[in-house]
């Protein structure tokens, strides 16, 4: 195969070839030539029926599958290995051929990463994919039918709310098939076609009920599913709720009148009611009675309804949709967790919190971590939040004993203040108000250090005192 590797100063070259969906008969001639002329041949996996027919010496990357912690690490390791080999053979004027199952352009993450890598030059030799055989066996025109291709590992999320038709690839194990099956809440009488070893002598194309899809055969990397229509969409309840909100906006006079501004107080009320339900639920764990479970579920639903209302209003205004809201929080959480989705190391919650604040400050272009904290927060909650911000920056502050001394001093100042009669409306002197604030701030810090949220603790005690008053009456 003619390559540019002999050109002066050319980058090391990787030639990606597709092996087709089945045996050696479906490997294109161009792929055979590229493999034969390569200085080194690397196959993504030797577990493909065409590999044994290639007639060349090759190295397999199968061992990397066992070593990688997740797929991101796996694909990154594949790329690094291929670049290393490409650099080695480039010095001798050759190139490395990288062979992948099916088509290099269909569901091949490692190929996409190679093409984006500026250390090398990448040439792709196309080949048929399993999709070509699937359309033939199913008698389906994917353009006319509007088929979506979905990876089985991402089915629950990628197919959420989608009724089909869907072609689900990478169904390589019973566990994966079971996860696909269980992600559909109510399949009804939906059927699914299992596609296995297409183009091989032991090919299987079998239509079964949804509940049988993981019992038909022993799947492997050449297994896929055809889902023509789901009786109920994945995550259907969220879809139904959004549609209900749209209907209410059209037909209900109260809902039709609402704006983002008018809904503000309702959101606040629902948030407080949800907080009450959460605290009651937490106090009863681990043996929470059914009525309390139902109460928390109801309050969370009321809060979700407020989010849905704002999202539908945003869609009506052409500003944003529920999908935009979900996407933005998803992307923000990924960006704020580089220790989960990147190469940053964080071993403790404190390290996570500190990095979170720095990332948030950089994202929003803020000059201080205190920007964005509402002044209208309840006072104890505001104090605790400011103290947490200080901790996240590693700012030195009084230790527990110093806080207790500070509080005692402030209480002593208050004790020397002139006594007032019950119900007296005269304002306290400024120094007295400051002393009270100092006591409460110090107390909030001591509570926080003990792992107690001061706002929650005071609310719980006030609730108990309220019951005491009611009982006394």
Descriptive overview:
The termini are far apart. The protein has helices spanning about 30-35, 60-65, 70-90, 110-115, 130-140, 140-145, 155-160, 175-180, 235-250, 255, 265-285, 290-315, 320-335, 340, 350-365, 380-390, 400-415, 430-450, 455-470, and strands spanning about 15-20, 40-45, 60, 95-100, 120-125, 150, 165-170, 190-195, 205-210, 225. By secondary structure, the protein is of the alpha/beta class. Residues about 5-10 have low confidence and may be disordered. The strands form two sheets. A five-stranded parallel sheet has the order 3-2-4-1-5, with helices on both faces. It has a five-stranded mixed sheet with strand order 6-7-10-8-9, with helices on one face.
SSE order and pairing:
Layout: E1 13-18, H1 29-37, E2 40-43, E3 59-60, H2 62-67, H3 71-90, E4 96-100, H4 109-116, E5 121-125, H5 130-138, H6 142-145, E6 148-151, H7 155-158, E7 166-169, H8 174-182, E8 191-196, E9 204-209, E10 223-227, H9 236-251, H10 253-257, H11 264-284, H12 290-316, H13 322-336, H14 338-341, H15 349-363, H16 379-392, H17 400-415, H18 430-449, H19 454-472
Parallel strand pairs: 1-4, 1-5, 2-3, 2-4, 6-7
Antiparallel strand pairs: 7-10, 8-9, 8-10
Helix pairs in contact: 3-4, 9-12, 11-12, 16-18, 17-18
